[in-house]
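job 3f2a | input accepted
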Amino acid sequence: MLRLAEVLPPQPSNLWTLARQCGVDYVVGTFDWSKGTDVPREDLPWSYMSLVRLKTAYENAGFRLEVIENRPPLNKAKLGLPGCDEEIDAACDLIRNMGRLGIPVWCYEWMPVFNWMRTSSNIPARGGALVTGYDHALMKGAPLTEYGEVNEEHLWNTLKYFLDRVIPVAEEAGVKLAMHPDDPPLSPIRGLGRIMRSVDNFQRLLDIAPSPVNGITLCQGNFALMTDDLPGVIRHFGAQGKIFFVHMRDVRGTPEKFVETFHDDGQTDMLACMRAYRDIDFDGLCRPDHVPTMLNDSNDHAGYSAVGRLFALGYLKGLRQAVYAE
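job 3f2a | predicted structure (326 res):
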């Protein structure tokens, strides 16, 4: 059965308590970056001892840690720059340490230089809640990054090199690699190619490195901008056993211009998606993602307000109960 989780900071907070009160038993973990990376190797955020502390802190609060959704620096690896092998070595260290600690899924991505991008983080939505949005017209005149233009085929080559290195390590460790899509799923942005932006490209990812540990983070907000049949895409990749982790969120619009929405107010048939996960016997974690900022909550970290997450968790719990009772 699809299991609901929440992504939580590494240090205990009110959100830890609220998640437990909502009946959440599983956690998606993030690194403790408080010491930085200029520390002895055993104190790096992805070291064995750091992960031990992270895992035991979550478990002592009543959670089971089954996904890590943070990464060592990988920009040189993505761009094929000097120092890329050292970054890949760090990723291999993370994977080995996850395997030793029984943490089965690593959510990673292949977006060079910048991660998810929005052009606004305070768009009024239902009842005055604030959501994020993207308008590609505003980015067409944006300057190139210091890396200039990077074409998509170069990124495919660097990804293949990365997978050739890490997949044998992941297979030995028993850790699944769950690729997150580009957000937004557009290419190029500021001269940088983006390759994880279509259903066909995700199939190419699976085909260039056939392995039981090579798979997908199915982030619905991104995939909803790639296809008009999201339940069909879930079944397509589910039939291959390649969905390792799910982000449930929703949007309205196109890849070129969209806004994020409440989970019950977007363009996706969430009920049909939940049925698709049931039908493929998905047995991994699913967490709500990118929620609106609601009344009296802070928009300092747009998309991750506490109150919005509680609404999302309740909505998804209701959907799951209805679908699995059918």
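job 3f2a | The chain has ten helices and twelve strands.
job 3f2a | closed
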